[in-house]
Amino acid sequence: xxxxxxxxxxxxxxxxxxxxxxxxxxxxxxxxxxxxxxxxxxxxxxxxxxxxxxxxxxxxxxxxxxxxxxxxxxxxxxxxxxxxxxxxxxxxxxxxxxxxxxxxxxxxxxxxxxxxxxxxxxxxxxxxxxxxxxxxxxxxxxxxxxxxxxxxxxxxxxxxxxxxxxxxxxxxxxxxxxxxxxxxxxxxxxxxxxxxxxxxxxxxxxxxxxxxxxxxxxxxxxxxxxxxxxxxxxxxxxxxxxxxxxxxxxxxxxxxxxxxxxxxxxxxxxxxxxxxxxxxxxxxxxxxxxxxxxxxxxxxxxxxxxxxxxxxxxxxxxxxxxxxxxxxxxxxxxxxxxxxxxxxxxxxxxxxxxxxxxxxxxxxxxxxxxxxxxxxxxxxxxxxxxxxxxxxxxxxxxxxxxxxxxxxxxxxxxxxxxxxxxxxxxxxxxxxxxxxxxxxxxxxxxxxxxxxxxxxxxxxxxxxxxxxxxxxxxxxxxxxxxxxxxxxxxxxxxxxxxxxxxxxxxxxxxxxxxxxxxxxxxxxxxxxxxxxxxxxxxxxxxxxxxxxxxxxxxxxxxxxxxxxxxxxxxxxxxxxxxxxxxxxxxxxxxxxxxxxxxxxxxxxxxxxxxxxxxxxxxxxxxxxxxxxxxxxxxxxxxxxxxxxxxxxxxxxxxxxxxxxxxxxxxxxxxxxxxxxxxxxxxxxxxxxxxxxxxxxxxxxxxxxxxxxxxxxxxxxxxxxxxxxxxxxxxxxxxxxxxxxxxxxxxxxxxxxxxxxxxxxxxxxxxxxxxxxxxxxxxxxxxxxxxxxxxxxxxxxxxxxxxxxxxxxxxxxxxxxxxxxxxxxxxxxxxxxxxxxxxxxxxxxxxxxxxxxxxxxxxxxxxxxxxxxxx
Length: 870
Ligand SMILES: *[C@@H]1O[C@H](CO)[C@@H](O)[C@H](O)[C@H]1NC(C)=O
Ligand SMILES: *[C@@H]1O[C@H](CO)[C@@H](O)[C@H](O)[C@H]1NC(C)=O
Ligand SMILES: *[C@@H]1O[C@H](CO)[C@@H](O)[C@H](O)[C@H]1NC(C)=O
Ligand SMILES: *[C@@H]1O[C@H](CO)[C@@H](O)[C@H](O)[C@H]1NC(C)=O
Ligand SMILES: *[C@@H]1O[C@H](CO)[C@@H](O)[C@H](O)[C@H]1NC(C)=O
Ligand SMILES: *[C@@H]1O[C@H](CO)[C@@H](O)[C@H](O)[C@H]1NC(C)=O
Ligand SMILES: *[C@@H]1O[C@H](CO)[C@@H](O)[C@H](O)[C@H]1NC(C)=O
Ligand SMILES: *[C@@H]1O[C@H](CO)[C@@H](O)[C@H](O)[C@H]1NC(C)=O
Ligand SMILES: *[C@@H]1O[C@H](CO)[C@@H](O)[C@H](O)[C@H]1NC(C)=O
Ligand SMILES: *[C@@H]1O[C@H](CO)[C@@H](O)[C@H](O)[C@H]1NC(C)=O
Ligand SMILES: *[C@@H]1O[C@H](CO)[C@@H](O)[C@H](O)[C@H]1NC(C)=O
Hints:
It is a single chain. By secondary structure, this protein is α+β, with helices and mostly antiparallel strands. It has 18 helices and 45 strands. The strands form 15 sheets. Strands 9-10-11-12-13-23 form a six-stranded mixed sheet, with no helix packed on it. Strands 32-36-37-35-34-33 form a six-stranded mixed sheet. Strands 15-14-22-17-20 form a five-stranded antiparallel sheet, with no helix packed on it. Helix 11 (636-656) runs antiparallel to helix 17 (803-815). The structure holds 2-acetamido-2-deoxy-beta-D-glucopyranose (11 copies).
């Protein structure tokens, strides 16, 4: 970052400074040096350690070899005298910039003011003071000054002549200041203000633009008569050495009522063009109309470098002398002259001068030719070459995202679009030539104002995370592998007999088998140290919390290699969490599927074990579907894709995984979404590994209200079809946009699957579908999915399709998307008794959405033969 950049940032930050100033006293950051000599260094400025300053540009270098010590801005030799949080910064200009007082300004200052221009409009800020030590300090109110382009001269050259700025390749004064002799500007200071002339001619320059044109002044040609004939005559002529008259930006204009006017010259061959204008009565003439009555205009040829104005009158104005004694002719910048009737008779119109635009180019080569001669090639860094239309030679332009003078080394400076355009809702990242937007930690969206912006990520609503708490000493475990830790957990569990029995019934035998493959965790994942994870989560900072439940917290972690991970940390809980934790490790270590969240490793050093997972950037499906704060509605295509991927993952768990796995807690909050909205099924704490010779196992009923398979609830027999039921509820949520269980809905609509089934029975499916996604094109597809969802939530498990069937039907629907759909009849034909809402009578709703049924339902369990499981 050059000085320019630094100042740019300082100026910009000044806006923020004023805001900070109201809340913060002028002091340094804690643990930072607050003074350099007797100069206060308030944050965001800072000296000493890197953390003391808010960014590089706010670094103050304190040189203690001086007495008293002196403060310097960043690594420059600009001495800082005073820093005020009101937005003022006083420096000593000790590096030889031209410093002017209020009646003049230096090249540096010009640029700086240009940079600040947008500040004026955007922030209405009157920040600014930069002084020079040889002069009194002064302050400039930026609202007064506004220059257009950062039009700098070559370093060491005069930047202006009077108030005309002279950007390189033009130059005045010493010979090195202009790129070639055609670009020399003579500044005549005998005028007040001084006047600029092109090379050695007497052609006055008004304005120089880096876009390839300059504005000069020229007088007009005239031809006047009195009653005795021609009284005065001036055949205006001009000859330019190099720069042609712009044929696009100028017009030849003639005024008179008995007038033929010509502009003539040489273009290698002679050329002549002109126009005629007549009028009989002054009343025929109209102000502003230059179309042949009193005034006429015509274009001029391309490449004209000299011209000469001549006139002819048919009647020597004898019929119009009263109101028009003269012919006038002149070349003028298009739009710079507007015709007034009075111009026909005003005595002193002959003294008028008009601006003319000349086109300028560098050299007489094309871009291609010029590039072959790098030594003389005029376009510097971050610029490109263009071949203009008018005449030979080329021009340079700054690349997109840069501004400044392309003819100067480092003349093209990055535009800080973040401040000029303010394109972002979130964090704006300006990089040379470009910029991008992102959202800060804890927010989601694309960050663009014209895009989805940033909205706060809502902490998942009472999500529960099963965890294990081990009552073992902290230090004991540090070097153990996951599985051995699990083993210890297992031994711990043996202390309670009932639970041990349960545990074994629920897969303990398999766990034991796992223990023989001790390497499990280290094979698939990594053992993290407590330190690593503390750093990754910024000491479990609350801003890193992704989700929080009764049993624990999930943090977002950033590993030293930049990888993002999710870290599950349990709060101290009970033995049931031990079981769930073991489950999760075992289950996840069996699975490798792209739609199942990956366990990356674990940490054993802490009293509370930590599990490290892949990070799903977009959070839970629940948030995306049910969070009103997320302004954008999830499209049906995305919903279908997520449904298919979830179905595939479950199908894989049921049929491809060995041993098969029943998830047992399929719900929206357990479906995570990565950055491209790929579904990741998570939370395997409640999952069951199914012994290969069993198709159903008896367990403590576990699940989530609203998703729980009623058959399982009644029989305690867990089968794969319980997941199918829960998945059916997920499908219904995707279709309707309603929550699985809502106590805000009327009582008979509380349970979504029952509400959905009865809506279908009454032929009211269309009423319940999510209006935000239904359209003509997808209605048939939605109906098909509704039919499938209906089958998934049948009361009898055996009537439900398998996950494999569900997945392939959904995929089929996607593939057939464009085909014509048969009319799906969603009316229920067979009579199926709707079960009473099972939650109404048997279960206490404790405010959480997860629950386990009490042990009284265990008495009916068919004993599960632990040892005969394999
Ligand atoms: C503070 O300034 C120093 C020196 O320029 C720099 O290395 C450091 O990164 C800056 N600190 C911050 C937080 O940007
Ligand atoms: C402090 O300033 C002196 C005199 O200009 C210079 O010689 C010295 O290198 C500076 N010290 C540091 C640490 O920059
Ligand atoms: C810096 O400016 C503040 C506010 O104008 C003033 O109170 C203070 O005395 C100044 N300090 C120095 C060292 O000039
Ligand atoms: C600016 O400086 C010039 C030359 O040093 C001096 O003549 C003029 O009076 C100064 N103007 C102001 C406003 O200080
Ligand atoms: C330049 O100075 C002249 C004379 O003082 C003034 O009329 C004109 O507006 C000035 N132009 C600019 C751009 O300041
Ligand atoms: C700048 O213009 C002057 C006057 O025409 C000329 O003497 C000098 O050579 C020019 N400089 C360059 C670098 O061509
Ligand atoms: C120079 O031209 C630019 C662009 O046309 C205009 O904004 C500026 O005011 C002009 N300056 C003078 C001194 O005429
Ligand atoms: C017409 O103009 C000429 C030249 O300026 C002058 O000599 C003559 O007296 C004028 N005639 C009348 C009638 O004004
Ligand atoms: C031209 O005449 C107009 C009014 O007739 C007057 O305002 C203006 O100053 C005159 N200009 C010159 C250069 O004599
Ligand atoms: C181009 O310019 C160079 C140097 O100014 C000159 O020697 C050469 O004759 C020019 N070529 C043409 C085709 O005008
Ligand atoms: C938003 O604006 C930027 C810059 O104009 C553009 O690149 C981007 O494509 C726009 N995004 C949308 C979603 O319109």
